[in-house]
Amino acid sequence: MDSATLSALSTRLDRLVAANRPGIAVLAPLIGAASLIGGALGYVPRWLAFNAVLLLLGTAMLRLPLVAAVLPELDRRALAALGALCGYTYLIEYVGVTSGWPYGAFSYGVELGPMVAGVPLALPLFFLPLVCNAYFLAVLLLGERAGTARYRLPATVAIVLLVDCVLDPGAVALGFWSYADGGVYYGVPLSNYAGWVLSGSVAVLALDVAFDHRALRARLDDCPFALDDLVSFVVLWGLVNLVYANWLPVLCTAALVCGLLATDRFDLAFARGSGGVDG
Hints:
This protein is mainly alpha-helical. About 70% of the residues lie in helices and about 5% in strands. It has one domain (about 5-270).
């Protein structure tokens, strides 16, 4: 794809996302949370609440702001690094499913689309955005210090870990997956978080290679919806953990919200439809 085509596509996607921010970042995850909780509690038919096609389509829609944010930064280096990261994502998940290392022995309880060797084919759609969101948030929160790798990389890994402290307990509560021996953290073993430190560190390094953080920072400053995917994450999984009285994950969600507030990315401006790239 030539630069002119990429620029035109990026502009159109920016406008589409900006015009639909409230629906994508707030309404959609609220509907998703209600459906998933209703399905887990028996108020919504499981075939509907946990339908693999609907789950994938819904997740893809929530990822649109993130895709729009990174699209202008996708050069050959970024595409190569992201391709390698997708391969690594499949590999580490396959090792985890078959050996129990590094996360702890677990199994999926909900079909997340087509599976290959026990690994969801759409796995990068679920994993990569979590790391990208953490990277974006770290870059914005650190300000000038984001220019130094010794601040940027550990901060991103810490946010990745915080994100999983929200995600895993909620997913276990809904039955998306479960750990063979349970765990002290709402059914999640501490080995899972050690595994996330390992896998997250590799993923963060790959992202750091993929993107010029200075150009990325400029794009983030110019893109008001760059963290809307993280907004939808805290809405959906924060509500799930709240319903199941997972109080520590709720506190972790609050910490993410504070981070979003500090970057002016979790306000009510877009709820009035005013948050657009063209003003």
